[in-house]
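Annotated sample (chain length 312).
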Amino acid sequence: MSEELRFDGQVAVVTGAGRGLGRAYAHALAARGARVVVNDAGTDVFGKGTDARPAEVVAQEIADAGGEAAASCDSVATESGAAAIAAAALDRWGRIDVVVNNAGNLEPGALPELDADAVRRHLDIHVLGSFNVTRAAWPNMLERRYGRVVVTTSVGMFGGDHLLSYSTAKGACVSLGRSLALSGAAHGIRVNMLAPAAETRMVTDPAFRERAGLPALPNGGSADPDRGPEHVIPLLLVLAHEVCPSSGETYGAGFGRYARIFWAETEGMIAPGISAEDLFERFSEVEDSERFHIPGSSSESVRFREELLGGG
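Output written by the structure step:
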């Protein structure tokens, strides 16, 4: 067995840490020596309302267990809120080593009923929230040439007709995280995306299930104890640790399964001047996934295309 992954002397900021996965992350990091800013605006699952108690309760739980924590109920959706979250760490401990962007909202909705405001609400929290908090921590990480950032995405990135806003935001989180990883590569900052699966409030909340047209859960709506956040924690700890072996990658974790998720492009076909009709006839060559390339960046994708064209 490898040596225990410890975070002694480090400071971690965890957003959306008042309940569910975020709470589990904050406790896990604190149990391994990290000092933790527990951030949670205390909204409901749809992102409405505010309540300082969830963050305060988790911070107190960590303190009662012998750890160090500070509560923050600032909103990740604003630059000022993100600055306050970072300041909660910097003013007290003088550093930020780990940022776990976990705050999120989840409103079901599909066309034609879905409106643009619903999409904006998801982008504000999931995407801009992750950007704002990471940006607020970035100067300290640059100064010390070290940082670990985890951006929470979801299998929602693959699309969902009844979760259009959420899926759109989670897809954007992947591109955001990949771009951040490239920005931090020369500065000791590693950024990865985590798509967790667990039966937490976002899955079990009766109001959400009703609005999403999902059946009520058995056992009075209680979460399945075998599908809890603890199965996500091992991967979160690896991605947040000094030994993190990757950057710019996306991983799935939940229910005891851990996997890499990647975007790829097929080699396709080279046929300058082809007509639409002939392309239709040969469309299977475009879709053939037997040979594919996994770009590490936009420029790598362009180079791959140019190499294929040059070879053709």
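Annotation: The domain at 11-261 is CATH 3.40.50.720 (Rossmann fold).
Annotation: The mean pLDDT is 92.
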